[in-house]
Amino acid sequence: MIELVALTKRYGARTAIDQLTFTVRPGRVTGFLGPNGAGKSTTMRLMLGLDHPTAGSVRIDGRRYDELRDPLHTVGALLEAKGVHGGRTAYHHLLCLAQSNGIPERRVWEVLELVGLAEVAHRRPRGFSLGMSQRLGIATALLGDPGVLLFDEPVNGLDPEGIHWIRQLMRRLGAEGRTVFVSSHLMSEMALTADHLIVIGRGQLLADMSVKDFIARHSASFARVRTPDHEPEQREKLTALLTEAGAQVEQEKDGALKVVGAELPQISDLAHGAGIRLWELSPHQASLEEAYLRLTQGAVDYRSTTDPRAGAGQQFAPPPMPPGAGQPYAAPQQWQAGPPPVGQQPPPPAPLPGAAQGAPP
Fold first, then answer.
1. DSSP state at residue 235
2. Same domain for 112 and 43?
3. Which of 185, 197, 273, 359 is buried most, with the most CB atoms less than 10 Å from its CB?
4. pLDDT value at position 290?
């Protein structure tokens, strides 16, 4: 279990983490979400004692990280996939950690087999792809068979098979009763992997709840209704009935109706009573991505525009052109009658106004 109490971290005048308090419990996968710059990586570094808090505390199984007797047996972490000694092979990287933490050599081969790197065990990680480096980082985290696991963007660089594998692995680790804490920007993966969510923005806690409750609280569900396309009068009649019943009705581009504020049985009864045929009546539940964007829209520090060209004219307007720029070139007056005779040099140009006479050019 990981416990944060009023955790605060400042870098000079900037507050990266502000009074964070939450608990990551065992037996489930907890997703850690937030916009870029929200403080997720800083929080995970504070958990592992890589940074010291300005105020507050963080405890793993009741102790600070530097108080753990056998840290690799208690906590496994993947923060930086490329953070390995490039001159050692993957096997010797793990063996060095195993020997310094009292872990038998057979465990090295177990985790290499588990992550699919046994065939490249004697290759140096400097030549690994990002996906292979991620797998080695996961093997490192699992080496001590710890009860607490922290993963920062673990699916970066993995192919679809690797993403499916790490998803199943994290869910299995959580089902075994371990504390699994995963930071990610991939909402689709978090929706399939996490049981619980911690969401922060600008260093402050925004949400601490299950995935199901998070979606329900931060999104609006609606019903999608379609009447026969060749009978628009039925659509208009149903729209009037639903509006009169207090629902909000919006027609979508494909002609279907988006209905908010009315349950499916009520919509069906109204349509049946008015003799309106329905081609479609289906519920729509917002995705985790939609709920996340709705919650964090006020905590985004780095926001792009919808059109990458929008505003470019105002932000990067070219400087004004000097007088006469852009006009057709006119030859000096003495050249306009024609080129000088063969062997004769053209006269020198008139000196610039204010130029010193006789001064070298």
1. H
2. yes
3. 197
4. 84
Tens of pLDDT, residue by residue over 305-329, are 655 555 444 444 445 555 555 455 4
Same-domain status, 75 and 55:
yes
Please identify which residue in the block is written with the tokens 């075994």. Answer: 176
The answer to whether residues 164 and 253 belong to one domain is no
Of 216, 244, 272, the one marking the end of a domain is 216
Structure tokens at 276: 């309106």
Strand ranges of the sheet holding 196-201, from the earlier edge strand across to the other edge:
75-78, 148-152, 179-183, 28-33, 196-201, 204-210
pTM metric for this prediction: 0.73
Q: Enumerate helices (H) and strands (E) in the chain, giving the number of each.
A: 12, 13
Distance between CA 234 and CA 13 in Å, rounded?
62
Is 212 in the same domain as 267? no
Domain extent at residue 230: 222-284
Which CATH number is 249's domain given?
A: 3.30.70.980
Which segments within the chain are labelled E, that is strand? 2-11, 14-24, 28-33, 55-60, 75-78, 148-152, 179-183, 196-201, 204-210, 222-226, 248-251, 257-260, 280-284
